[in-house]
Amino acid sequence: LSQKKMFRKYNQRPTFRQMQLENVSVALEFLDRENIKLVSIDSKAIVDGNLKLILGLIWTLILHYSISMPMWDEEEEDEEAKQKTPKQRLLGWIQNKLPELPVTNFSRDWQSGKALGALVDSCAPGLCPDWDSWDEKKSMENAREAMKQADEWLGIPQVITPEEIIDPNVDEHSVMTYLSQFPKAKLKPGAPLRPKLNPKKARAYGPGIEPTGNVVKKKAVFTVETVSAGIGEVLVYVEDPQGHKEEATVTPNNDKNRTYSVFYIPKVAGRHKVTVLFAGVHIAKSPFEVDVAMAQGDASKVTAQGPGLEPTGNVANKTTYFDVYTAGAGAGVVEVVIADPRGKKDTVQCHIEDKGNNSYRCTYKPTQEGTHTIHIMFSGSQIPKSPYTITVGGACNPGVCYAKGRGLQAKGLRVKETAEFKVYTKGAGAGELKVTIKGPSEILRALA
How many domains is the chain partitioned into structurally? Predict the structure, then answer.
């Protein structure tokens, strides 16, 4: 510890108690000449194994040789420094290394493990560069990571375990003993140093994350700037009021400020949560709360057409469709509500597919016969001609139809004589009856 020779000789092979006592006396005399104050301890107490006094002596040696005597980097040797206690001196050195953390003790301020990571990274920038993003609730993981890096690459042995240093009842002397090794630590060659990341220094700005002003179906854009945060990946997630989460489109701009252009298209109105992550950690102010309003499009410029809107011709349990065209109507949402013959609006569901080019395919399948009413809305208002009224017929089943009459007899008909027969369609559903008659030389027209 002292790097000095003893003042007088001692027995190198003490086999008798008297030799052991004499050797301890030589050591205690040396400590006294080093101006180390020893109270209530003698050679007999040490040889007899008085644990309390021995531990006190060890702590005295740690204070003197590991904390009081060495001159540390960034420490000035002046009268004020000499008057500080060893505890004040070590704490002052740590505070100088960690100006961003309020470290004032050797117990509770170390329980989250973040201060350990900060100290390791301060002594060797790049060993624990992401310590400030560590979760304080994961104190054990934090302490293990920091102490592992200190052990492997700074040569600081774990004289205290991670479990002990995060314990609220940890012994301060043990923590001081461990931390007193840091001022003299030197980084070993080949250490896996990483660039320092500071996600909280990334910032986002633009209309897409403003509390108001964004509307449904309209692209919401904003920018993420990462020049002060380091090198990392930007990810953006948007969660709508129903809890559906989608990843936004992020494009690097490759400029000097390392900015990223981001956009998303909200599908529903209401409060959205926009989460912006840099290197897997929230940036400053993330997540952002964005209230999306209904788009204010012009419903009068919207048109619709297709077989599903025809007054007749649609049958029950058969899928039909129509198209809605919104070109020139501005931003807005297409909505379709179908009322069945009893006026209920929840029995027939309509699937709306965006076909691009301001065209939407609306598909539905009526399950009942009778009059249906179709309401088509854009941006909350009915479009021209809406609501549409259609009559749904029964499903067509030609197999139950049958025909009979003299006009279908194989024999007995004469030229120029009227040939009659009847077609019975009861139970066959809705459909159009067509009759084709082919004679020996031409197709004849049937008169219904």
Answer: 5
Task: State the pLDDT confidence band at 402, using cuts at 50, 70 and 90.
Answer: very high
Given a cut of 60, whether residue 177 has pLDDT beyond it is: yes
Query: Same domain, yes or no, for 310 and 289?
Result: no
Task: Report the distance separating Cα 118 and Cα 129, nearest Å.
Answer: 8
Other Cβ atoms closer than 10 A to 193: 14
The DSSP H or E segment spanning 322 is: strand 320-325
Q: What span, in angstroms and rounded, lies between the C-alpha atoms of 274 and 248?
A: 9
- In single-letter form, the type of residue at position 320 comes to T
DSSP 73-134: TT---SHHHHHS-HHHHHHHHHHHH-TTS----SSGGGTTSHHHHHHHHHHSTTSSTTGGGS
Q: Residue 106: which domain range? A: 79-184
Same domain, 357 and 437: no
Separation CA 84–CA 88 (nearest Å): 6
> Residue 370 falls within a domain, yes or no?
yes
Q: Which two tokens stand for residue 234?
A: 């930007």
Q: Any idea which residue has 């209401």 for tokens?
A: 270
Partnered with residue 336 across adjacent β-strands are 376
Which H/E stretch holds residue 290? strand 288-293
Decide if 8 is inside a domain: no
Measured distance CA(448)–CA(442) in Å, rounded: 19
DSSP per position, 343-391 = --SSSB-EEEEEEETTEEEEEE---S-EEEEEEEEETTEEPTTPSEEEE
| Model pLDDT for residues 357-370, shown as the tens digit of each residue | 999 999 999 999 99
191 located within any domain: no
How sure is the predictor about 87, in pLDDT bands with cuts at 50, 70 and 90? confident
DSSP 8-class letter at 66: I
190 assigned to some structural domain: no
User: Which residue did the predictor score with more confidence, 347 or 68?
Assistant: 347
CATH number at residue 277: 2.60.40.10
